[in-house]
Amino acid sequence: MIQFAPPRHWQSRPSPNYNNRPDHMQPTAIVLHADASNRVDQSLDWCRRPESKVSYHVLIGRTGNVFSLVHPEHRAWHAGKSEMDGVSDVNDFSIGVCLSNRNDGETFPASQVFEAVRTCALLCRFYNISPSRITTHALVARPLGRKTDPLGLELDAFITQVKQMLRGK
Asked: Rounded to two decimals, what is the model's pTM?
């Protein structure tokens, strides 16, 4: 089987906060997050500390810079107590894509959203993930209401953009 190779423009910033997926399960969903930080380097530092026990597969800065923290074949620790479509522990079967954002109403810059759409389209294509399986941390975290991220990102519009990119538009 061919393994996913991150694009050259992704910067490698490995996190120790991951483990193997159960039974080498392949990802079937993408969870969007906001890191609630003022600067992407703060989030990178936190995700690279073993004591944080937090990581994402991909972190996208406000200027559109993309960081690879955990290979998608592995289980990053991003969703916590979670459920999607009646299945608990969303980390087992999802890819965590985080946008650096204070999550307090801060606007997501167009360059950042473009890179997030491009990243999700790439992951959907490689892993055969339907764009309808892109969700947010707010929608999968349990109990519902425990998380709000990514606050202000319009999920339906985002999914539409991913579908358009997959169709080459």
From this structure: 0.98
